[in-house]
TrEMBL record:
Residues 1-16 form the signal peptide. Residues 24-33 have a biased composition (Low complexity). The lineage of its organism: Bacteria, Pseudomonadati, Pseudomonadota, Gammaproteobacteria, Chromatiales. Residues 34-43 have a biased composition (Basic and acidic residues). It holds the Pfam family NlpE. This is Heat shock protein HslJ. Residues 157-263 form the DUF306 domain. It comes from Rheinheimera soli.
Length: 270
């Protein structure tokens, strides 16, 4: 073998010996199965419970027989609080304002509260009054620091009424002549019909508690000079998922946002 060839082979063997050893599949890669992703539960009181409504209870009082507390929480995060000091003279103290949820969606704080507690933990059909530090009250009287949700007392019904639109996406609906204001009517057989501002519509709805959802609507095909209100009205009601009903009227919501549409009862159907 020639001398140059021997030198080349020697150099190649030296480089091969100094190079990195070939890698082998790690035990984790070759033998271990991929770990399942951790499932995070995002449900909380704010987005999972039917919390809107009126709660009542008689909580302990240091210098009276008890404080009769009536707290109404609305879907638009407004509240009305009425407190009566039992055994004392004087009328009920009325306070109203807005409330906000904590980061976990489990506790509400009544804002601009001038008298009484401001923090409540929201449970299934119950509110638990918390102390000033936001902690659950313990001790022998702990059970007395809770408010129970009241059954709806209003005689207003969703069905058998013509609901006339008064507000859409936060804007008042102006009166027109002739009256072209949208309205809708609910039937007991889960059918809904009404007027959208130009065309008539009909469809179906599903409701459970305060949950409400409309199925796709069928409309007449009348040509409209200005269909913007009609289009916005129909698209808005198709997107709602819950409602509130009181003596003041009907309101539609999407999740826990401000009211998307408000209605007033103008005609009771026979």
């Amino acid at each position: 073998m020639s001398k140059p060839l021997i030198l080349c082979l020697t150099a190649w063997l030296v480089l091969a010996a100094c190079g990195p050893a070939p890698t082998e599949p790690s035990a984790t890669t070759a033998a271990e199965p991929a770990k399942a992703e951790t499932q995070v539960d995002h449900h909380n009181s704010q987005n999972s419970l039917d919390w809107a409504g009126t709660y009542r209870g008689v909580v302990p009082c240091a210098d009276c027989e008890g404080i009769d507390t009536l707290l109404t929480l609305n879907m638009d995060n407004s509240y009305l609080l009425s407190t009566t000091y039992l055994g004392k003279e004087g009328d009920a103290i009325q306070q109203q304002g807005t409330f906000e949820w904590d980061a976990k969606g489990s506790v509400i704080q009544l804002l601009n509260q001038k008298e009484g507690p401001a923090l409540y933990k929201v449970g299934e059909n119950q509110l638990f009054q918390l102390d000033m530090a936001g902690q659950v009250i313990t001790g022998d009287l702990a059970e007395n620091y809770k408010l129970n949700k009241q059954a709806q007392q209003t005689q207003v019904k969703l069905t058998g009424v013509r609901w006339k639109l008064t507000e859409l996406m936060g804007q008042a609906v102006p009166a027109t002549e002739p009256d072209m204001t949208p309205y809708l009517e609910f039937a007991a057989d889960n059918r809904v019909s009404g007027f959208a501002g130009c065309n008539q519509f009909t469809g179906a709805y599903e409701t459970e508690g305060l949950r409400l959802q409309f199925k796709p609507m069928a409309t007449t095909q009348k040509a409209c000079l200005n269909g913007s209100v009609e289009d916005q009205f129909l698209s808005t009601i198709q997107g709602i998922d819950n409602y509130s009903l009181s003596d003041s009227g009907l309101a539609f919501y999407k999740a826990r946002t401000a009211a998307l549409a408000r209605f007033t009862a103008v005609q009771v159907q026979p």
